[in-house]
Amino acid sequence: MIKLNKNMTVSELVRRLALPAAAVMLLTIPGAFAQEAPKPEGDITSEDEIKQFCTNIADPARDQRYLLQKQDLEKLRADIDTRMAEMDKRKAEYQDWLKRRNDFLKQAEAGLTDIYKNMKPDAAALQLEKANTGIAAAVIMRLGARQSSLILAEMDPEKAAVIANIIASASDPNTSKDPS
């Protein structure tokens, strides 16, 4: 309790009463002495929550990205393997065609061409009709155009057509199968 003197001035009285009055006033104002309470460890802000979420999913997201890239690479590898198999198949067909063509030309070079070159067209046609169609086609192909046409004109039309197809396919690079 504050004792008042008769000799006390008004300013001294105000000074003595000011401090308790200020204390009462501050106590009545909510949050006047409030300090920011420290955050409990379990309580996090939304920004912290976002950072934590991003940190938690970074490794699984990277793993998923790598998995998708790996799957894409495997698909591309399978596509390349398929194309390589197709290229190998076509290469084998081409090599087969080239081998048969070279064999075909060698058969005609064995002196057989010279024999038929000196024969009459009707006699050559009769013999070539009975010969292997591949050999007949090789011989006719090695003869001159005039003599070949005379021999083919003397042959059976079906046999002449088969021989003409063989000759035509020998010059076609897309053909790899024997037409006879």
Written overview of the protein:
The protein has seven helices and no strands. The protein has 180 residues and is an all-alpha fold. It has a domain at 105-170. The longest helix has 64 residues, at 46-109. It is rod-shaped and about 165 Å long.
Helix content: over 70%
Assembly annotation: single chain
Tell me the fraction of residues in β-strands, as a range.
under 5%
The coarse overall form would be rod-shaped
Uncertain stretches: none
Estimated structural class: mainly alpha
What would the average pLDDT be, to the nearest integer?
80
Tell me the series of helices and strands, N- to C-terminal: HHHHHHH
Major sheet, described briefly? none
- Number of E-type strands: 0
Report the radius of gyration as a whole number of Å. 54 Å
How do the helices and strands line up, and which of them pair or pack?
Blueprint: H1 10-28, H2 46-109, H3 112-117, H4 121-130, H5 133-142, H6 145-154, H7 157-170
Helix pairs in contact: 2-5, 4-6, 5-7
Give the key terms.
180 residues; single chain; 0% strand; mainly alpha; rod-shaped; 7 helices
What is this entry, summarized?
The protein is mainly alpha-helical and 180 residues long.
